[in-house]
Amino acid sequence: MDSNTPPSSSAAAGSADPSAARRNSKRPKYSRFTQQELPACKPILTPGWVISSFMLVSIVFIPIGVASLLASHNVVEIVDRYDTVCIPESARNDKVNYIQSPGDKTCTRNITVTKHMKKPIYLYYQLDNFYQNHRRYVKSRSDAQLRSNGSADDVSSCEPEDKSNGQPIVPCGLIAWSLFNDTYDFSRNGQQLSLNKKGISWKSDREHKFGKNVFPRNFQNGSLIGGGSLNSSLPLSEQEDLIVWMRTAALPTFRKLYGKIEDDLQANDVIMVTLENRYNTYSFNGKKKLVLSTASWLGGKNDFLGIAYLTVGGLCLFLAMVFTILYLVKPRQLGDPSYLSWNRNPGWQ
Amino acid sequence: MDSNASIESESYRSFSSRRSISSHHSKLSASNSIGEATCAEMGSKKVRHGSRGGADSEGFNLSQKEISDEDARFVYINDPARTNERFEYARNSIRTAKYSVITFLPRNLFEQFHRVAYIYFLVIAILNQLPQLAVFGRGASIMPLAFVLLVTAVKDAYEDYRRHRSDRIENNRLALVLVDGEFRDKKWKDIEVGEIIRVRANETLPCDMVLLSTSDPTGVAYIQTINLDGESNLKTRYAKQETLSKILENMSSGLIKCEKPNRNIYGFHANMEVDGKRLSLGASNIILRGCELKNTAWAVGVAVYAGQETKVMLNSSGAPSKRSKLEKRMNVEIILLSFFLITLCSIVSVLAAIWLRRHRDKLDNIPYYRRKDYSETDVENYNYYGWGWEIFFTFLMSVIVFQIMIPISLYISMELVRVGQAFFMIRDGGMYDEASNSRFQCRALNINEDLGQIKYVFSDKTGTLTENKMEFRSASIWGVDYSGGNPDLQSEQVAHEVEVDGKILRPKMAVRADPELLRLARGGRESEQGKHVYDFFLALASCNTIVPFVVDTEDPSVKLVDYQGESPDEQALVYAAAAYGFMLIERTSGHIVVDVQGEKQRFNVLGLHEFESDRKRMSVILGFPDKSVKVFVKGADTTMFSVIDRTSNNNVLQATEGHLLSYSSMGLRTLVVGMRELSNSEFDKWYIAFEAASTALMGRAALLRKVASSIESNLCVIGASAIEDKLQLGVPEAIESLRMADIKVWVLTGDKQETAISIGYSSRLLTSRMNQIIINSNSKELCRKSLEDAIIKAKKLSGPNVSSNMEGSSGAVTIPVGLIIDGTSLVYILDSELEELLFQLASHCSVVLCCRVAPLQKAGIVALVKKRTSDMTLAIGDGANDVSMIQCADVGIGISGQEGRQAVMASDFAMGQFRFLVPLLLVHGHWNYQRMGYMILYNFYRNAVFVLILFWYVLYTCFTLTTAINEWSSVLYSVIYTSVPTIVVGILDKDLSKRTLSKHPQLYGAGHRQEVYNSKHFWLTMVDTIWQSAAAFFIPLLAYRKSTVDGPSIGDLWTLAAVILVNLHLAMDIVSWTWVTHAAIWGSIVATVICVIVIDAIPILPGYWAIFHAAGTWVFWLCLLAIIVAALVPRLVVKFFHQYYCPSDIQIAREAEKYGRLRDHGTVEIEMNPILEPPRR
After folding, report:
1. Could you tell me where the beta strands, DSSP code E, fall in B927-1086?
2. Domain map of chain A by residue range?
3. B875 with B886: CB under 8 angstroms?
4. Inter-chain residue contact B1041 with A251, CB threshold 8 Å
5. Which residue has the higher pLDDT, B1177 or A340?
6. What pLDDT does B151 receive?
7. Which GO terms describe its cellular component (chain A) (predicted)?
8. A13 vs B549: CB contact, 8 Å cut-off?
9. Among the ranges B19-28, B476-485, B664-673, B982-991, which has the highest mean pLDDT value?
């Protein structure tokens, strides 16, 4: 600004003091941040980058897929559905009535081992069409009550299984009430197979979620019996079947660990299962299955992940090749200004 | 307002026809009023028209009607008790604070819930409180809303606390008030209407007062209104002669009858009765709260408006609120999303209904349903209200679960992002104006992204394109041109000095002088030409409203003369006169003192007719020391030549006209000076009429105008002055950039056509290659004909261009068309069917130049374009005359320049220089648009992915709205897990550097073509969303099929997958990775993991320790990896194909930026093809 010619209208009489003006300068302080000039990395999807990343994906995915498939194939899994078979022929017309009627419901199943099974062999029961994730069901529990003795009265969330005869139920709620109560016994060649039922639940649940001084009380005393009952002299933290059951399943078809057989099973071994068929899944067409399975590093028998990885890996390999071919056939120089819309032939649009 | 405007114009029309003013004026005003009405329709800003509209029409209102008693307030001077007995007028305490301690909670909540978003939140939260619908726990459902409300409330409370504090300081200031015959200190808040207050120099006025007396014997007071309208020059206010002497005695007899408080700071209308005489009071008799008294030892006034009723308080309203185009578009998509939400909810309810129907016999006993409650003796339904209700509840519950489908957090994010964007715009060093020491200002926070889609720029000329620093350049006196002050010749800078009372007086500004003229001026009145030169400069020195101030300098013997006035043109002329030896030293209302070549002369100012925009001239009647009386008139050539006596000195007249033409074609602003000697009888006749008119109570302004036009007649032309208004720095380059960006620039100016065209050339608005179409018509029919011809011509010109473009890119020659149209033609075009023709014509033209336009016509033109296209309009101006245009356009920009701050007050953005428009639009506008557009799409995607994952799961839970994902996680998802990166990207991501964007304005086309946010992108995003959510949901579902997995574990997997997915999706689209972006993206993922871990570490939640169990298995990690790759591959493929085989301009520029190819090729190409591709329409 020329000091001879200050803007006459803005300089009110006597108030123009150049040094003051400089002191009050509102010029924004320069910093790379405020000027949006922070150092930045600006990656661009170049063909090379894209092709190599697709290649990388396929290189990683295909071996994982193969490994997963192998793992899944190495798992030996025997599934035996027994819900219908274990009902006498005569009672099959009214299964619900049969299951609700008192009496001995022992049933024997013979299972032939198809392949050598290494220990430990996990024993699951599988229920189908049982919505443990139903809203009414999931909510019907009291975690406070399970954890500490003092909260025994905290049953408001447990309706309609909150109280029985005016006394709070421990453990309350539909989940506990519907505790699965079929039992299994295994023998091979007439010799009892030892079934380890310790440690089938989560350690964290045993130690922190289910109280060591919380004992079942008033449980399964109502007019309608939902499932198994509990030994009222054992604290909840030791009722592992309950703890497993209370880990509600995410999906309507689920398995729950029943126990572990700490013994190898040979191919063509015949396992005799003596089971008490007590649990009522008939009222909602639920299926019951018994599952014997070994475990791999990936868990149980499930080909899905292997197939998924192979598919994705294969697809990426294919895409990488397509891109390579396209790149060789019809390359475009990156940043070529002749592609800019205002440089392109307008007639071409 | 609308009705008001039409009433005004109606009255004006009847009035003007009586006075036989040429009919086009009344038409003009009629069109204006309608133009204004169309703009006023746009909502909240109506009120702002008040001040300006009032100022324009003040004369008519005043003249037409007296204030009726019910519309008046009566102020008994020095009798506050009587004044206030009938009506309780506001006390002088002010209260800008909104809340008190008690009202804070209800009022603040009430204001916050004005936002639809919050109401939606609230309704959902309330629904969730119903026991039948309790999807989330109480805490989880209220938390987000409570959080937002709390943050806003704390912010509001803090701001209000500061307002309280400043109110307290303000209210406790002291003023001198007349009590019992003497002036005593009184707190501001205790001042009452009717009290007499004395203000000393440099004090701030405590309330609006009518001036009664000042230290100046003639009753003049100078005030600075910088707090009111930002204008720093001094304004003169007058006390009535009748009240001057009677400050203390019998003032109590006075009565002021004034209009009710209003917000018009430029108008005041009142009568005062003193000693039985009625005096009329106008805007020049009132001094307003907030102003400062300057150069006047003291002033005494009577308070008429106090406290909240003062004009400054009535005017303190916030910035106008507008909604951006992007946001309007977005709302359409929000409605689509609502439909989508309703569809999802309906699907769930219908499926739930079917399920209930199928299992209706078993519901009582299914273990996971258990309809019956057997615990009581009488067995009842538990939590079951019948089939219909269950479906209804399911529907509402699904709305609660899927609520974030409507991205309510988006509104909050958008506000934050805009604040961030504004932060960077304000702090951009490139938009700081050194000269006025002003930063860029964001006054409206809602339309940042509109800056990236501007198609039409309407610009004022004076003060916007030019600096509005007037410099006297040439004079034509008595037919002789003196343009010797040629800058090339290094002519001397003359600062004429005179010695008065031993002190040297020197004008503050030196002027380049023509040596020949200087010689003549110094030669005295002996020669014939010398006489005319004397008259000419005397006219320049006297015929104005400039007030000289003598300012001390460091050298005690030298004093500077500083000329203060409202018009920069007048300042320039007075400085010029001073340079030639006619130095104005003193001005009072009765006389002026001019130092003529070192000899002090006193002239009596017998009368002054101030400048008026209708007359476009002003006159002063001077009584010379030798008792002769002359009238000097100065005005625009159009209006001057009609009052000049053409019978004599015809050759002088013709020569002057010739000079005027050549001046204006050089881009100079011209004024014609004329004079006439008055005979005694003439003077007496005029004096009587003038006295009568100026004391008239009815129709004063009109009477005065009539008197003025009677005296301003049969003038003898002395000469003409030419003033240069320099173009601002960088204007031609800026205009060129805007044109290259395919923005149509319309310049609307009040200047003459020749001046406008020449400015057009110098600002590169017009180029020599351009074909000009000029429309000057005097009737509607002529207008129609010339418009139709012009359209044919324009089509012919643009027609072949298209075909020549086809032939080859480099050889394409476009003949751009420039349209020049004048205000008279616009009178016939605006608000008639011809508007359509003009619009058609204008759409063929790359440049439109409107000259001689009235302020309201400017708004009319903006409205014309705005009505007919969906393209965004931007108006930029600096003066009060641009306010209507600024408010009418989609984006209004005020230049904080020489003409005060009214334009800034009305604008959405304000800046110091026109050239900042380039960084503002091309850089910040582009960024804002890109960022905001992407952010909206991303937010839709982000929320929809999550909702769909929830939805898929609902299909596996008997349609009962169970969520595997923990309720806290679903609440925190859009609050903590994913919100920060989108805001950071919305503020910081740069697709291209500032340099590239300003170098290649064509890149701005991305905003015009709506490249970032359009329906195609929306639908593609939605399809992608469905795929991604499906991948995220079904991969774990299938991998964990028939396994022991529990709900919380798989839920944690879904949570992590969704969060990582959306963050990586965002990462894929980020262009520039700074450390902030890295921190936001990876920080969010880490924060999510921490949150999930913390939630799973609470033993009383069902999902206790789930994440640790899940993460201990390989399946978990393989699922996560598979989800991310499978979900993102399609997008990556499409993105790569699109970028590689049909790259957008931005993509190429980005590559070029990285590989440095644009510089060598690009610029050459651009110069070859200055005009972008033809408009795609």
Report:
1. none
2. 46-75+300-339, 85-115+127-251+266-287
3. yes
4. yes
5. A340
6. 78
7. endoplasmic reticulum; Golgi apparatus; plasma membrane
8. yes
9. B982-991
Contact A159 B383 (CB under 8 A): yes
Please give the Cα distance from B7 to B14 (Å, whole number).
11
Mean pLDDT confidence for B75-86: 80
Beta-carbon pairs below 8 A across chains A and B: 357
Q: Is the pLDDT of residue B23 over 50?
A: no
What is the model's pLDDT at position B493? 59
Q: Does B1140 contact A138 at a Cβ distance shorter than 8 Å?
A: no
B647 touches chain A (CB under 8 A): no
Only one residue has tokens 């990936």, namely: A298
Confidence of residue B578 (pLDDT cuts 50, 70, 90): confident
pLDDT of residue B495: 61
Q: Do β-strands A183-188 and A191-192 pair in parallel, antiparallel, or remain unpaired?
A: antiparallel
Find the closest chain B residue to A176 by CA distance. Answer: B367
**Treating both helix axes as pointing N-terminal to C-terminal, what angle do B1015-1039 and B926-954 enclose, rounded to 10 degrees?**
40
Q: How far is A190 from chain B (nearest CA, A)?
A: 30
pLDDT in tens, B1066-1095: 999 999 999 999 999 999 999 999 999 999
Residue B1071 touches chain A, beta carbons under 8 Å: yes
Residue A278 and residue A175: Cα distance in Å, rounded?
17
pLDDT at B414 over 70: yes
Task: Let me know if B1048 is exposed, middle or buried by CB neighbors in 10 A (0-12, 13-18, 19+).
Answer: buried
Instruction: Return the structure tokens found at A274.
Output: 């003596």
Which of the following is catalytic: B79, B460, B514, B989? B460
Q: Does the active-site annotation cover B569?
A: no
Would you call B925 an interface residue with chain A, using a CB distance cutoff of 8 Å? no
- Please list the alpha-helical segments (H only) found in B632-679: 637-641, 650-665
Handedness of CA A28, A34, A36, A40 (dihedral sign): positive
Q: In the predicted model, what is the mean pLDDT of chain B? A: 81
Query: Residue ranges of B for the binding site for Mg(2+)?
Result: 460, 462, 878, 882
Weakest-pLDDT range from B420-424, B487-491, B548-552, B601-605: B487-491
Contact B912, B433 (CB under 8 A): yes
- Our CA angle for B428, B434, B438, nearest 5°, is 65
Q: What is the chain B residue with the closest CA to A48?
A: B1136
pLDDT at B315: 65
Nearest-angstrom CA–CA distance, B1155 and B1149: 10
Q: How far apart are the first and last CA of chain B?
A: 37
**How much is the pLDDT for B155?**
79
Could you report the predicted ipTM of this complex, rounded to two decimals?
Answer: 0.93
Provide the sign of the torsion angle of the four alpha carbons B1168, B1171, B1176, B1177, taken in this order: negative
Going A114 to A115 to A116 to A117, the CA torsion angle's sign is: negative
Residues 135-174 of A with CB under 8 A from B: 135-138, 141, 143-144, 147, 159-164, 174
Closest CB to B1125 among A57, A163, A280: A57
Chain A interface test: which of B1148, B1157, B1165 (most A C-beta within 10 Å): B1148
Quote the tokens at residue A184: 């299994």
**Nearest-Cα residue of chain A relative to residue B564:** A9
Three-class SS string for B19-88? CCCCHHHHHHHHHHHHHHHHHHCCCCCHHHHHHHHHHHHHHHHHHHCCCCHHHEEEEECCCHHHHHHHCC
pLDDT digits (tens, 9 = 90+) for A38-76: 888 888 889 999 999 999 999 999 999 999 999 999 999
Contact B59, B21 (CB under 8 A): no
Q: Which of residues 927-966 of B touch A (CB under 8 A)?
A: 956-958, 960-962, 964
- Chain A residue with minimum CA distance to B1140: A332
pLDDT score, position B1023: 96
Cβ distance of B437 and A21 shorter than 8 Å: yes
